[in-house]
Specification:
single chain; 313 residues; Thymidylate Synthase, Chain A; 6-stranded mixed β-sheet; 10 strands
Amino acid sequence: MKQYLDLCQHILETGTKKGDRTGTGTYSVFGYQMRFDLAQGFPLLTTKKTAFRLIVSELLWFIKGDTNIRTLIQERNGIWDEWAFERYVNSAAYTGPDMTDFGRRVLKDEEFATIYKAELASFKEKILADEEFAKQHGDLGPVYGKQWRAWDSANGVIDQLAQVIDSIKHNPDSRRHIVTAWNPAEVDEMALPPCHLLFQFYVADGKLSCQLYQRSADVFLGVPFNIASYALLIHLIAHECGLEVGEFVHTLGDAHLYQNHIDQVHEQLAREPKELPTLKVNYNGRSIFDLTAEDISIEGYDPHPRIKAPIAV
């Protein structure tokens, strides 16, 4: 994972100090590319523990076309909780304590942080217990899964993921093996416009490679997840198409470190990378659309301890 650590160092040395939507502030560079040979091991970060279980359940959530956090909460995955909670507290249905700007306030006000945690926990309990509440307040709008599996067009619904798999199988040399999550007609309806917004597959010498374009990249918290998620996607689709894995090419637009993550980045850079783990998938003759989180695991993962950092909402 030297490529990822080099990116962190590059931003520290050359990044421009910028404001951002969250009000947190970043150090940012524009236009950066990393390449990972998947035959060399599964690219799960070893300089801090990364929650592979969360990566798996989120990717399967995308693959199944789901957009409601109820599924993720059932899998004990809280990656998208804050985005749904933000929509809820900004709606007319919410009548609790003022949650304005909770992402930053929780870092500065211990009393508020206690109130916030209680409100978020109550929200998640309602999502799990009340199906109608979940439908109304757990859905994130037409985010990744909707665009991958059910893109609305004038000619009907398009299942981009199924189409690209069929295209790879029957026309491997095509230059149109593309899936996009950036739907201009629906961006404003999404809890968060897609950051990893377009990916293209490439077949050569019996191997499947993929290039991702990511418009916005939270390098400390988000990018390790993105690398592992798309590496896993390549493995799954390669198997579906009877191919070996090739490269994951990760192209970044605005690659940034949040200003409140800098100490954590220095701590990570002081650590020595370890051997990459190995991916294990129990296909048992099934399509990738039928896999569960229990079917996917890693072996030989011995990372350095986790490094906590606040998420910017």
